[in-house]
Amino acid sequence: MKRKKELHLIMALMLLLILSGGVLLFSNGISRELWTNSIQTMTEHMRQGANAINIQFETDFYKLEITKESILRVTSSVQKQILAPSKIIDPDVTMYLYDDDPDAEVVKQDYTVRQYLEKTDKERGILDSHINSMTGESVFNIFVRVPFRDGTRGYLVKEYRAKDISMQFTLSFYDNNGFSYLVNRDGTIMVRPQHRNSNKTNHNLFDFIASKENDESMITFFRDSIYGKKSGWAKFVCEGTDMVFCYEPLEMDSDWLMVSIVPESVITAQTKSILTRTLIFSGFLGAVVLVLVAYFSGIIMHETREYNRELRDALEMADKADKAKSHFLMNMSHDIRTPLNAIIGMTIIAQDNRDDNERVDECLEKINLSGKHLVSFVNDLLDMSQIENGEIILKEETVSISQIYNEVINLMKLPAMESNITMEPAPAHLNHETVVGDPIRIRQVMINIISNAIKYTPSGGRVSVELTQSEKVKDGYGIYRFRCTDTGIGIEPELLEKMFLSFERGRNTTHSGIAGMGVGLSITKGLLDIMKGSISVESEPDKGSTFIVEFRFLLQEDEAAADEANIQTAAITELSDAEAVYDYSDKHILLVDDVELNMEIMEALLEMIGANAEKACNGKEAVDLVRTKPCGYYSLIFMDIQMPVMDGYEATRQIRAMDREDAKTIPIIALSANALAEDVQNAKLAGMNDHIAKPVDIGPIEKTLQQYIK
Ligand code: ADP
After folding, report:
1. Which fold is adopted by the domain 284-391?
2. Alpha helix locations (H) across 84-213?
């Protein structure tokens, strides 16, 4: 652990080192770049300044040339007048004449210019700045030679006041911290800036650069560059301050250059400010990126952890489900074998006691009970699978909820009595009796809860039930609370959390050998979920349990329901009246089944009701029989579904398609071991009237005959 921490620390330090190195390299690179940029910008400015001066001088030279041409073209008498030395051609242009005329008027001419022109042999040129002997101003000049025909040497000279040129053409940089000067190739300053910050004392460029502060070879190199009229830049220490010198030659016929002098600190200050801003911005950007990376990697890590947890949970669930299923198979095998054992055992006992009618009756009763237990077991399995597959469709009937409650209590009284349990039902207290719901499923929920209470309460215990209605009504829906409290064995806390899952049973219940396979509550919960209800439980081991079910029903007007209930009662009465008088002896009922034993049972049941059965052992035989018999011969057909040669669906379709009067009206009832909702639907789609699930009991058969045979 400690080593791991150290490793992390070293890695963090290395990262910091790399990062700092990166920042240093980056800032150096940027500084260099910015420095070069500043020098380039300065050079570019100077180039433009120099260019402007070049253009100005070129224009003035051109004007002098034109004047010269005009002078040379006029007659010599006129020339005499014009050439009088005192005549000024233009306020700034003067003609300087060199002839032997001793009266020539030279008084008003600049002595320095006159002296220079006397000695020069140049055709045109520029004169270094000097003090005009006439005006006392700092000036410089350009000149063009005029070759008079009589041999007189003349010069047209234009004078510039250094002050004017300085105002027009010298540059200042970096908020008047750096300035440009016009110098000649010896470094003499010809024109200096007017600004008060600029240097007013040095007369030569090289006066700025003291040799003791700077490398001599550098100074020489700089001096050569200036003398050679090159362009470039150099850095020198001037009175303790680092100064940058940028130089650019003027292109005209002169020895002049433009030189800018700027303190290095001014340039680097700007560079530093840009760099600092860049670094701050990059730092900020980096921080934002880091925060984002941390945020997203946090999310990703969280998601990965979640995903792993989900995987682990799923694995655990799958493992649990697997265990629960093997447990369920074990229980199922046990739960099937128990009634089967009873059926086989009781049959043997009955066979052995044929003469003892009472004993035989007792055996038959137990065989019947075991069979019914098996059927309810299979029904539970079907319900469970239908709920899991979302195949349960609820009926929407107008029902009296207290009627269902009372029926359930009446039904459960017998098993409670048999187990020596006292049932304590409270009368239903309801504001609304009538609701829309599926009576079979409501009954199933109540029965499941009460039968568990009876099952898990030892002899002598009590089971109390009540049904109340909450005051709350929302959007026409009412809440009904069904509560069942027992004084039974209670539920262990660990089972409380998972008892609504399939195949979960308590240890105390499995060990005590109480029959059950752990699906009753999961079916109940599944049905309530579909009904948008809920279930909860409070329990303490050895003290008892309370189950609370909340139903949510659409409320109906109680009067309408009463009418409906009356109609139902009337129908039942009618039916029971009919039962009392009905005689099936002259009716022909066709039984279609491929299994001999099933056929035998049905035949016997029909005989008990007093009806005659004719038989066909597959769909094709049934179709042929119907075809050969006259119209209306068969009053009803009980049709198996899965049969060889032709199945029940196809046989029904063929009968319905026959060209005879009763083809569409003969009642055809499916009698099948396929008992899922989709099987019932398929039977109806094939044209059958109804569906009875095997194993068959006499009750449903009798009811069907009453309903369909008129
Ligand atoms: P089964 O009763 O067929 O085992 P259920 O799903 O109905 O299956 O119940 C699941 C488990 O919950 C039972 O095995 C039992 O341990 C426990 N249980 C249910 N109702 C009660 C009750 N009223 N008292 C004590 N335990 C109960």
Report:
1. Helix Hairpins (1.10.287)
2. 111-119, 162-169
Domain boundaries, the chain: 284-391, 397-561, 578-708
pLDDT for 580:
53
Residues 640, 594 contacting (CB under 8 angstroms): yes
Q: How far is the CA of 505 from the centre of ligand 1 (A)?
A: 6
Q: Per-residue b/e over 134-161, b at no fewer than 16 CB within 10 Å? A: eeeebbbbbbbbbeeeeeeebbbbbbbb
Give the least confident one: 76-85, 168-177, 480-489: 76-85
**Does pLDDT of 168 surpass 80?**
no
In Å, how far are 41, 52, 123, 263, 600 from 48, measured between CA atoms? 11, 6, 28, 21, 122
Q: Which two tokens stand for residue 53?
A: 């001066």
Q: How many CA atoms lie within 13 A of 440 on its CB side?
A: 6
Over the range 297-323, which residues count as b (16 or more CB within 10 Å of their CB) and which as e?
A: eeeeeeeeeeeeeeeeeeeeeeeeeee
Average pLDDT over residues 626-642: 92
* Atom in ligand 1 nearest the alpha carbon of residue 544: 24
Which atom of ligand 1 lies nearest, measured to the CA of 514? Answer: 4
Do residues 193 and 206 lie in contact, with contact meaning Cβ atoms separated by under 8 Å?
Answer: no
For 286-322, what is each residue's pLDDT tens digit? 889 889 988 888 888 888 888 999 999 989 888 887 7
Pick the closest to residue 117 from 140, 97, 137 (CA basis).
Answer: 97
Interstrand relation of 397-400 and 634-639 (parallel, antiparallel or unpaired): unpaired
Residue 491 CA to residue 456 CA, distance in Å, equals: 10
pLDDT of residue 578: 44
pLDDT of residue 573: 41
Cβ 217 vs Cβ 204: under 8 Å:
no
pLDDT score for 547 = 96
Q: Which residues contact 408 (CB under 8 A, 6 or more apart)?
A: 443, 446, 447, 450
Cα 370 to ligand 1 centre (Å):
21
Query: Does domain 578-708 match CATH 3.40.50.2300?
Result: yes
Cα 311 to Cα 183, 301, 305, 501, distances in angstroms:
85, 15, 10, 20
CB 156 within 8 A of CB 150: no
Architecture field, domain 397-561: 2-Layer Sandwich (3.30)
CB 187 within 8 A of CB 204: yes
- What does the alpha-carbon distance between residue 584 and residue 668 come to, in Å, rounded to a whole number? 17
| Local structure of 7: helix, strand or coil | helix
Extract the runs of DSSP E, i.e. beta strands, from 200-340: 232-238, 241-249, 257-263
Neighbours of 397 (CB within 10 A): 13
How many other β-carbons are positioned within 10 Å of the β-carbon of residue 536? Answer: 10
Tokens 């100074």 correspond to what residue? 219
Does the pTM exceed 0.85?
no
595-611 average pLDDT score:
87
| Site to substitute for ligand 1 among 456, 510, 528, most atoms within 8 A of C-beta | 456
Q: Is 457 in the pocket of ligand 1 (CB under 6 A)?
A: no
**What pLDDT is recorded for position 55?**
86
Give me ligand 1 centre to Cα 509, in Å: 7
Tell me: cis bond preceding 700? Omega within 30 of 0 counts.
no
Weakest mean pLDDT among 241-255, 396-410, 648-662: 241-255
Query: 635, 634, 633, 648: which is closest to 598 by C-alpha?
Result: 648
Centre of ligand 1 from the C-alpha of residue 518, in Å: 7
Contact 548, 481 (CB under 8 A): yes
Q: In what order do the strands lie in the sheet with 138-147?
A: 88-90, 93-98, 153-161, 138-147, 124-131
